[in-house]
Amino acid sequence: MSAKRPRSFYILAGFFALFLLFLYGPTLTIAILSFQGPEGGLTFPMRGVSTHWFADLFRQQAVGDIWGSFSRSLVLGLMVMVTTIVVSVMGGLAFRKRFAGSTVIFYLVITSLVIPSILVSLGVGLIFSQSGLNVHWSTSGYGAQLTWTLPFGLLIMFAVFNRFDPSYEEAARDLGASAWQTIRHVVLPIIAPSLIGVALFGFTLSYDEFARTLLTSGSYNTLPLEIYGMTTNVTTPVIFALGTLTTIFSFLVIAVFLLAVWVQSRRRAQSGSDAGQGML
User: Fold this and answer.
1) What is the mean pLDDT of the chain?
2) Tens of pLDDT along 176-218?
3) Contact by Cβ (8 Å): 127, 141
4) I want to staple 73 with a disulfide (CB 3.0 to 4.6 A). Which of 5, 47, 222, 255 is the partner?
5) CA dist list (Å): 201 to 42, 77, 83, 162, 204
6) Euclidean distance between the first and final Cα of the chain, in Å?
7) 47 occurs within a structural domain
8) Residues in domain ABC transmembrane type-1 (predicted)?
9) What share of the chain is helix, strand, coil (3-state, %, to 5)?
10) At residue 156, does pLDDT exceed 50?
11) pTM (2 decimals)?
12) Phi then psi dihedrals of residue 49, to 5 deg
């Protein structure tokens, strides 16, 4: 017979349910309102149920550049993701040993997380404009977003390499592997799940970043800026349909990265099993 749960359990469960409602309630509300009929508005009660506004997204829009801004956010997210992975791995490898100025560099990297995002956007935009450089989403916007993603990637790599067993590298070098072969065939496969996490951080933080892109994107908006602009001139549920599709896209991205982690873990398990059978 199971023991009776204390009252505190139900209180905490209630708080957790309220937290989930607060967290996902707005998203669910937008998703519901996006299925309004052709005569629907931006508020309840709903006027019919249909997929009219989703179809409207794929027609020529009188306002906004939805698909252009989406493609820019996608390309920018991939650029930031790749750069974050490469720099984070290199930084993690470098910080395994103490070097002159390492402490100062570490705190400079972390400082960018506590500086208000709008100030970073303003500063990067001013540097580019005053230097005669083009303020564009692929240059200044790219640099501004890296100030947000790189610290997260580096912190993850610091934690990973702090727990990394150097005996694996020593064994590879004893077998005649070069420094690059050791990194490629030993280090990277071991830290692959963490690299997937860094990639997910880099892409998702870039994809929905607003403040650090506001003053650095130039004359072409990314998707968050475009959606914000549409809130001032779009008065139909088409904006809710756009929000629903971008949310679904975000979940699909997360699912792809989780699938990559699962495939990687299966491969490692299969490799270990094959190695064990070879020893027998």
Assistant:
1) 87
2) 999 899 999 899 988 988 999 899 999 999 998 999 999 999 8
3) no
4) 222
5) 32, 10, 12, 20, 6
6) 47
7) no
8) 70-260
9) 70, 0, 25
10) yes
11) 0.84
12) -130, 125
Q: Report the C-alpha gap between 48 and 33 in whole angstroms.
A: 10
CB 204 within 8 A of CB 250: yes
Q: Is residue 57 part of a domain?
A: no
CA distance 15 to 272: 43
> Where residue 239 sits, what CATH number does that domain have?
1.10.3720.10
pLDDT band for position 269 (50/70/90)? Answer: confident
Peptide bond into 38 cis (omega under 30): no
In the beta sheet, which residues pair with residue 49? 36
CB 53 within 8 A of CB 236: yes
Q: How far apart are CA 135 and CA 218, in angstroms?
A: 5
Q: Give me the domain span that covers residue 257.
A: 82-168+175-265
Is there a domain that residue 246 lies in? yes
Mean pLDDT of 12-25: 91
Return the residue matching tokens 């650090």. 212
5 to 11, 13, 19, 20, 149: CA distances (angstroms): 11, 11, 21, 22, 43
Query: Does 159 map to a domain?
Result: yes
Quote the number of domains for the chain.
Answer: 1
The separation between CA 83 and the C-alpha centre of its own chain, rounded to angstroms, equals: 13
pLDDT at 44: 84
Question: Do 84 and 201 form a contact (C-beta atoms < 8 A)?
Answer: yes
Taken in order 37, 39, 42, 45, the sign of the CA dihedral is negative
What is the number of other CB atoms lying within 10 angstroms of the CB of residue 172? Answer: 18
Q: Identify the bridge partners of residue 36 per DSSP, sorted by sequence position.
A: 49
State the amino acid at position 28 in one-letter form: L
Structure tokens at 205: 């933080």
